[in-house]
Every structure is written in C-alpha cells, then in structure tokens.
Amino acid sequence: MDISEYISEKAAVFVQTSLDKSNSEIEQIKYGIQSILTNTFKLIILFITAYFLGIAKHTLIALISFGILRSFASGIHATSSLKCIIANYIIFLGNVYLSIYFTINKLNITVLFLISLVLIALYAPADTAARPLTSKKTRRKLKTLSIVTTISLYILAITLKNNTYVNIVTFSACIEAILITPLAYKIFNLPYRNYKKYEIITSTSNQSM
C-alpha cells in the first residue's frame, strides 16, 4: 500500500465513522482523496524537475493551457503512476523545450489551431473506461466548452507578445487535440468511446423487459 492509498483509506474510515454515508459514497470519497494526493505528488515531481532546469514558469503556462482544454475534452490517461510521470515529462517539458528552440509564425499558428479545432469538434470529449461519459447532454456540453476553449486559446496565442509563450499555448492545444483521437487510443491500446458499452447494456435491458 502506497502513502496516497494509506492516507485515503484512513480518511475514508474517519468519514465512515463520523458521517452517515453509504459504502458506495465512502468508496467515491476514498477514490477522490487518493486521486488528489497522487496527482499532487506527480505535479510536485514535475515542478521540482522544471525548477532545476530553469523552466518552471514555462512549465506552469504549459500545464494551465493544456489542463484547461483537457478538463473539457478529456482524452487518454496513463495506466500507471510511473507512466503518468513519464508522460508529464514528455508533454510538458517536451512542449517547453520545443517552444523555446522552435519559433512558429502566425500563419502556422493559425493552421495548427485549425487542425486542433477540427479534431476537437470531431472527437471531444473523449472519455475513459474509468470515467465513461454516458450522458448525451453532458457530452454535448463538454464538446461546446472544448470548442470555445480552443478558440479562446487561439485568441490568446495571437495576442501574446512572447514567442515562447505563444508556442507553448499552441502546442498545448495541439497535444490535447491529438490525445483525444481514436488513433491515440489505438496506439496506447485503450478502449475508445466507452459510453457506448453502457448504451448497449441499456438497450439490451430494455429489449429484455
């Protein structure tokens, strides 16, 4: 048992003894606490590395740009903490170094955002097996928010004066757009459009009634 699991287990026991909660609610609380602790640990590792590399501010901009769009569009998730840490290094530190050493002009920025917008319009939101988006209303809302966020990031990118920051915002949108495509799911051998499984189950249940 790792430290995050230990703390979340103790917190769940405390909640269970203090409040009148069902077992399913306790499990949700435990999972939420563990997720927060695990993600915090990963971010600490990322920013300690970025600090010693002298790119902490750039990494923060990459994280915010990517995270805002990802919160609506979702996308693939690593299947282990180690893989997630490695993915964070590639996505954020890779983005920063690419942005520092390669300058893209406004035409290329527009082209990259157009490609990202098309991918977002086609595939967002891309759910996961752990978090299937079974509600059509929720999926429509998240798609709209994803499109609006992509357009907002484009406006931000073309108004920023610092070329490195422009590149970071642009590459962040591109990376997230790629991570929601069926090809990305196929490459990482992850199930795609997980909500359809629940639609099949619901349809089968209705037919048997």
TrEMBL record:
Enzyme Commission identifier(s): 3.4.-.-
Membrane-topology annotation of the record: Multi-pass membrane protein
Keyword Membrane attributed: yes
EC top class named in words: hydrolase
UniProtKB keywords: Cell membrane, Hydrolase, Membrane, Protease, Quorum sensing, Transmembrane, Transmembrane helix
Subcellular location: Cell membrane
Entry's transmembrane regions: 43-69, 81-104, 110-130, 166-188
Pfam family membership, one: AgrB
Top-level taxon: Bacteria
InterPro entries xrefs: AgrB (IPR006741)
Function recorded in the entry: May be involved in the proteolytic processing of a quorum sensing system signal molecule precursor.
HAMAP family, per the entry: AgrB
Family in the record: Belongs to the AgrB family.
Protein name: Putative AgrB-like protein
Species name: Clostridium rhizosphaerae
